[in-house]
Amino acid sequence: MAKITFSTDLCKGCGLCVAACPKGLIVLAKGKLNKKGHAPAEITDQAACIGCAFCATMCPDCVITVEK
Amino acid sequence: MKTVFQKPKALTDAPLHYCPGCTHGIIHRLVAEAIDALGIEGNTVGVAPVGCAVMAYDYFSCDMVEAAHGRAPAVATGLKRAMPENIIFTYQGDGDLASIGMAETVHAATRNENITVIFVNNAIYGMTGGQMAPTSLPGQVTQTSPYGRDVKHCGYPVKVCEMLAQLEGPEYLARVAVNNVKNVLSAKKAIQKAFENQIAGKGFSLVEVISACPTNWGMTPQKALEWIDEKMIPYYPLGVYKDRSKEAGV
User: Fold this and answer.
1) Has this prediction a pTM greater than 0.95?
2) Domain CATH code at residue A21
3) CATH number of the domain at B24-242, out of 3.30.540.10, 3.40.50.970, 3.40.50.2300, 3.90.550.10?
4) How many independent structural domains does chain A possess?
């Protein structure tokens, strides 16, 4: 069981985490914008997250915190 | 639950101004992680460049100095010689280090100054809007080479690691990339080694990091990372170009 949290307002919606997730669990939010005006990344199925931290490793803005 | 990944303490809370998908952010984090891992934040001084990373002094929690364009290795030399107990690093782009700052870089390397140089190579001038850099690839389209870099007219790209490896001075020269998880983890090790070398008093350590500039390359962030694999790494092969600790008899 792992948990990832996003500092949503720091996200620039670049999508590098989306491509890095081996389980394909991360998407850019549809119909939602953060303070910067980007569509932020979010996780679709928290329970399926394996806590590999690939998303956080590729995030240029330290948006993601991973707990396991 | 245990936190397995979080923002390193050596980075401030200031939001990075870089474009979406710019890998400067990853490289900042790797430098900060090395500072955290070695517990040297209190006595580290960074030297910021001119270029996209000009505001790096806002992002690192350690002391920072802003150098004139390209002069970071000269400023770092002064800092290190005046305060040899402190850890001094420079963070420079390709327009800064490989163009206007080439002389300072080469001479700091040949003197084997005991400093750590983080060299971010994204093959373009980012901050000024995407002009051709000394490191732009042959045929690469930029604002000032709209038909692609013509090597007959503009010459060939500068391969900094290969060039400096010819000198007897430098201790450690490595080229890494940050375009996928595996490469980011190798980059982290190389950057940490560059700091460890300085702590051990070994001398000039430079890590060249192949980085993406999605905005000025005109690509999506993910496509830019693929372009690094397809175009940049074949021209700038990754690896350790010099490591005197591994040479026989040293």
Assistant:
1) yes
2) 3.30.70.20
3) 3.40.50.970
4) 1
User: Using one digit for the tens of pLDDT, what is the confidence trace for B205-239?
Assistant: 999 999 999 999 999 999 999 999 999 999 999 99
CA distance B100 to B22: 23
Q: Between the CA atoms of B105, B108, B111 and B114, what dihedral angle is there, to the nearest 10 degrees? A: -130
Asked if B223 and A18 count as a contact pair (C-beta separation under 8 A), the reply is: no
| Interchain proximity B22–A3, CB inside 8 Å | no
Gap between the Cα atoms of B44 and B35, Å rounded? 8
d(CA B198, CA B201): 5
Which residues of chain B neighbour A53 with C-beta distances below 8 Å?
Answer: 4-5
Is there a contact between B4 and A51 if contact means CB atoms under 8 Å apart?
Answer: yes
For B218, half-sphere exposure in the C-beta direction (CA atoms, 13 angstrom radius) is 7
Note whether A53 contacts B: Cβ–Cβ < 8 A.
yes
Interface pTM, i.e. ipTM:
0.96
At B66, is the secondary structure helix, strand, or coil? strand
In which domain, by residue range, is A13 found? 3-67
- From B25, which residue of chain A is nearest by alpha-carbon distance? A60
The residue of chain A with its CA nearest to that of B30 is A57
